[in-house]
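Lab notebook page, bench 4
Experiment: in silico fold of construct C2
Operator: M.H.
Input chain length: 112 residues
Purpose: comparison with the prior construct
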Amino acid sequence: MASIPTYPWRLAPDGLATFRQLRARGLRPGGQDVAAQMERPRRRRAPLVAYLYEVDKAKPVRPMTPAKWAALAKANTARRTCPECRRDAGYVIPTTLGMCVTCAFPEEQRAA
């Protein structure tokens, strides 16, 4: 079994980039395998690992289509709609509450 090259944190050679670095340049890995990894040691825990991809083999990010924009808008609207009162809360409903603040704490809303 072949292992991939491992570099210390922030000391990767030129031509290799993390997923986030590729995305900042408007690129994506494009199906290529991980070329190397960087490890950052931590006390009493496993080291942080960042996978590196070759910039030369990266492909441009696919543009958003109108259908994708519509699906994203619909998903965000669903995250803002309260399941109790069916109103748009104007913010993303916290998953810890599962409903808008007005429905979750009605006695505090009456007092105010």
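Observations: The longest strand covers residues 45-54. DSSP finds four helices and six strands in the chain.
Next step: discuss at group meeting.
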